[in-house]
Amino acid sequence: MRLIPGYWQRALTILFFVLTLASCVAPNIDHWPNSVPDQQVFIAAYSADAENKQRQSLREYLQWVVSFYQGNLIHQSGWHDIQTYMITAPSLELNEELHDQMGRLGVVIGSEWAKHNDIRLIDTRMLSLWGSTIQLASNFDTQQQSIEVISEDVSQLLNGNLDKEDVLESRYADILGLELFGGF
Question: pTM for the whole thing?
Answer without folding.
Answer: 0.81
